[in-house]
Write a structure and sequence with these properties.
single chain, 512 residues, alpha/beta, Leucine Aminopeptidase, subunit E, domain 1, Aminopeptidase, 8-stranded mixed β-sheet, 7-stranded mixed β-sheet, 15 helices, 34% helix, elongated, binds ligand BES, binds manganese (II) ion, binds zinc ion
């Protein structure tokens, strides 16, 4: 991954391939943002005009390249758009900086080192630039000719690897808050990028056991206890939902439990992730056109995994348990049929009317397992329904909960870290659509409001009195169009930053 360093050097003296500066959209044309003073001086204060001549407006996502003037060690200047110039005294805000840094890092693919001279008002801004640069520089080339990323592969590919090093300029590199913000950003970005790698890994190489193995290794490295229930243990324990979904696959299912504890923790959070390593639909097979990206159906589990490891690396004062419900949903002679009844871990019975509504089945068992420990709150994350994509589009996840205040806290936490989300209801009248004469409930209900029906199904498997929320990330988990801001094509790491923020707020006692 791209290295992040704090530099005390001024922009002119930095030995690098490029200097990144910010340009905002002003009322009368582009405005050069703070951080680029030395460069502006080198242009006799005419840098804004030079940028305008080159076609720059300061719009978000815009990249303008120009040769560096005499006196600069770096040969290239990359001016990145910050969007509208803020009111006097107001900063650009973390998200604008994160996006701009991400765009610049992507524009510098193939470069060894770049100095980021973006406007930093405080330590949080420095963290945002660090995060944006590390997330924006991400690329997944493990399956490209010449293999994985790294120096050797970069050379082999004519220098087309991700940006090698992002050096932050203009910050107070000895300031404690500043250093802490940048260290937080690095740990978070590293784990989030690991979640993206898991999502992007093709399903023939990432089956439930392979995912569990990755979790075991990371747990060992970062002080997270990892327990794995294999198919035998699942059968012995009565996990009918996870087993039922995995029944058609040659690769058996797993339930992975990640435990992070802090000696001074007062609260316990449980995160539960949907981990369908491939969703073919099962016997209710998805048609062509709907299954090409279904390796992304373990994005919820990847987010939970990354969040728990990040929480451990940050040493947060809260206990966090992660549950990864891993299975591959395949059709075969041993697969669950539409019409089968499963006895779930909670004891409830479910008539499977559509084997493509499998996420709720694996989550039901994991939610019940999480509930038995009586945590203060449970949050599940899942690429659960196409209906949520229709409702909210490709960049926003839906938040449902059995507690309105908790739902608002999650939407607020998501907004704080730059993840778009929206509160969704759990209308009681939709529950009866899942009634069936054969079992306690069916895994399908009314078609309209399908995302909410799925939420109501999950609610049935949350222990009495436990605060619970459900994030349906089916839209934002996998980016099928072009990259934007710090979001690459493919796996995005949706949900990770919101979960980590929730853990931080809980540790600080700001969430109850
Ligand atoms: N994994 C899919 C949901 C999905 C759709 C994720 C698009 C990402 C992008 C899920 O398992 C599914 O197939 N859901 C069905 C449920 C239906 C059969 C009740 C759906 O949404 O169509
Ligand atoms: Mn499905
Ligand atoms: Zn699915």
């Amino acid at each position: 991954m791209t290295a992040l360093t704090l530099s005390t050097s001024g922009a002119p003296a930095l030995r690098a391939d490029a200097i990144v500066i910010g340009v905002a959209k002003g009322a009368k044309g582009p405005v050069v943002a703070a951080g680029a003073e030395a460069l502006d001086q080198a242009y006799d204060g005419r840098l804004a005009g030079v940028l305008e001549t080159l076609g720059a407006s300061g719009a978000e996502g815009e990249v303008t390249k120009l040769p560096a003037p005499a006196g600069f060690k770096a040969p290239l200047v990359v001016a990145v758009g910050l969007g509208p110039r803020p009111e006097q005294d107001a900063g650009y805000g973390a998200e604008a900086l994160r996006r701009a840094a991400g765009v610049a890092a992507r524009a510098l693919t193939g470069a060894k080192k770049a100095g980021f001279a973006l406007p930093l008002a405080d330590a949080a801004d420095a963290g945002a630039v660090a995060e944006g640069a590390l997330l924006g520089a991400y690329s997944f080339d493990a399956y490209k000719e010449n293999g994985a990323t790294g120096a050797a592969a970069r050379t082999a590919r004519n220098g087309k690897g991700p940006l090698g090093e992002a050096a932050l300029l203009g910050g107070k590199s000895r300031d404690k808050a500043y250093r802490a913000a940048v260290e937080r950003a690095s740990a978070l970005a590293e784990e989030l990028n690991r979640a993206r790698d898991l999502v992007n890994t093709p399903p023939n190489d990432l089956d439930p056991e392979a995912f569990a193995a990755v979790a075991r290794a990371a747990g060992k490295e970062h002080g997270v206890k990892v327990q794995v229930l294999d198919e035998k243990a699942l059968a012995k324990g009565g996990y009918g939902g996870i087993l039922g979904v995995g029944a058609g696959s040659a690769a058996p299912p797993r339930l992975v439990k990640l435990t992070y504890t802090h000696p001074k923790a007062g609260k316990h959070l449980a995160f539960v992730g949907k981990g369908i390593t491939y969703d073919s639909g099962g016997i209710s097979l998805k048609p062509a056109g709907h299954n090409e990206t279904m390796k992304c159906d373990m994005s919820g589990a990847a987010a939970v995994f990354a969040a728990v490891v990040a929480v451990a690396r940050l040493g947060l004062e809260v206990n966090v348990t992660g549950w990864l419900a891993l299975a591959e949903n395949m059709p075969s002679g041993t697969a669950t049929r539409p019409g089968d009844v499963l006895r779930m871990y909670s004891g409830k019975t479910v008539e499977v009317l559509n084997t493509d509504a499998e996420g709720r089945l694996v989550l039901a068992d994991a939610l019940w397992a999480a509930s038995l420990e009586k945590p203060d709150a449970i949050v599940d994350v899942a690429t659960l329904t196409g209906a949520m994509v229709l409702a909210l589009g490709n960049r926003t996840f839906g938040v449902m909960a059995n507690d309105d205040a908790f739902r608002s806290s999650i939407v607020d936490a998501a907004e704080e870290v730059g993840e778009a989300s929206w509160p969704m209801p759990l209308p009681e009248h939709l529950r009866k659509g899942m009634d069936t004469p054969t079992a306690d409930l069916a895994n399908m209900g009314e078609r309209m409001g399908g995302g909410l029906v799925a939420g109501l199904f999950l609610r049935e498997f949350v222990g009495e009195g436990i605060t619970w929320a459900h994030l349906d990330i089916a839209g934002p988990a996998f980016n099928e169009s072009g990259p934007f801001g710090y979001t690459p094509k493919g796996g995005t790491g949706s949900g990770v930053r919101t979960l980590v923020r929730l853990a931080e707020l809980t540790a600080a006692g700001d969430l109850d």
